[in-house]
Amino acid sequence: MAFLHHPPACCLGVDVAKDSLTVCNGREAAVTVANSRSAIRAMLRKARPDLVVCEPTGGYELLLLEECLKAGIACHRADTMKLKSFIRSFGTLGKSDAIDAAQMAAYGSERWARLALWQAPDANERQLQALVRRRADLVALRVAERNRSRAPGAKPVAASFRAILAAVERQIGALDAAIAALVARGHSLARRIAVCTAMGGIGLTCAATLLAQMPELGTLQRRQAAALAGTAPHPNESGTATGRRHQRGGRPQVRTALFMPALYAAAGKGEFAAFYRRLIDNGKRSIVAVAAVMRKIIVTLNARLRDAEIAQS
């Protein structure tokens, strides 16, 4: 991950909507421009910022990020929870596009040294993300439809459930085939997938999910990898009281993907089976041991992908 090495002289906060952008530099009143390439280019030429901060808005922020990259301007796509907490710390209760843009400018000006800069993903990586996310949506739909089909009173519409489930299964199969084809076409992606699937308990679907939802794998420190995956145990202490540590934050999709490989180790299979058994023998609860295996898996994968990239270069 890349970071700024000096404070930005001008930081722009940009609140993104589908058709418009609300822009503020923290010193002047916010202005609104169209969310189009030409308008964004004109705005960047006029403002000449050193750093642009926005937040995820369902993909509508990508035009801004791409134009910043083309213009050589550093940009950061902020974590929504962190940004909202920053705004609340000032006691701000109101919400508007102008307020959000001004607070994003303040956030960038104050936290610039710790904000990872956005970098354009590889074309294959972006396609993999789209396929994996759509597959996750369909899997969730399949679970919901199966649960509804087993509910009391579902018999009169059983044929509808069967039809929908059959269609969903076909679509999931088509996405699995598309993911496999994409991996076969992309040399770099295939190499990263091979590193992941070499670990027992991780198949193609799991590896694709991990790389799509956490493309930073291989570039992080071990603690960063554990935290970003949502597998880092956070302390729960106050005075002399020490509570149990819990995994919080991170990316829930990654944590979900790691659960089945961890159960594979819990079943006594794979390279982490001995690690799991040692934790159980030391008195750890089974769910705590599974969580520890999940953390071990993501940290190990991060190290192996890093080493593979170094060897390749």
Give the biggest beta sheet: 5 strands, mixed
Query: What is the chain-wise order of helices and strands?
Result: EEEHEHEHHHHHHHEEEEHHH
Q: Regarding quaternary structure, how should these chains be classified?
A: single chain
Find the count of extended strands (DSSP E, 2+ residues): 9
Strand content: 5-15%
Major sheet: arrangement of strands: 3-2-1-4-5
Sequence stretches where pLDDT stays below 50 over 5 or more residues: none
Distance between the termini: 18 Å
Total helical elements:
12
**What average pLDDT do the residues reach?**
92
Radius of gyration: 23 Å
Query: How would you classify the helix and strand content by structural class?
Result: alpha/beta
Report helical residue fraction. 55-70%
Basic shape: globular
Q: Your description of this structure?
A:
The chain is built from twelve helices and nine strands. With 313 residues, it is α/β, with parallel strands linked by helices. The strands form three sheets. A five-stranded mixed β-sheet has the order 3-2-1-4-5. Strands 6-9 form a two-stranded antiparallel sheet. The chain has a two-stranded antiparallel ribbon with strand order 7-8. Helix 5 packs across helix 8, helix 8 packs antiparallel against helix 10 and helix 10 crosses helix 12. The longest helix is centred in the middle third of the chain and has 28 residues. The model has no long low-confidence stretch (mean pLDDT 92).
